[in-house]
Amino acid sequence: MNELPQNAFNLRPDVHTETEGEFKGWRTWTRDAFETHNGPFWHRMDETGKVQCVFRVEKKHLNGQRNVHGGCYMAFADYCLFAIASAHLRGPGVTVGFSCEFLDAAHEGELIECDGEVTRAGGSLIFLRGTLRSGERKLFTFSGTIKRVKWKKPPAAGA
To answer: How far is residue 131's CA from residue 117's CA, in Å, rounded to a whole number?
Structure first.
């Protein structure tokens, strides 16, 4: 069961499913230039119906002390919010709240995984929480709120 509900991607024509390598069968979104540049970040649904998110730490993810940069953890966690919420979101949304705690450092080559859940999905807001791990080691915890919004065409570049 590696399929997210069909409605999760009705408004996401930018879904890419990897066809080779370590993340074969995992999905990512290509429309977000920031995530594309800072990832690649990946998601899929496991056999129990739970969304999983991962990324492999590369040199570009490291800070000056050769640990994963805190901003990278935060960017990945925000990506995870939307992957985890996708079945509830059913369209565009924006992050309106985000809180986090840094617990431990990760290093080049490690696989960072996210365990997360929707804690409440209301009329316009979706509340979530999650933990980033490397193996059994907890690295980072977070919670966030996504607001459902109406689709707006992005402004032209330079406008």
So the answer is: 10
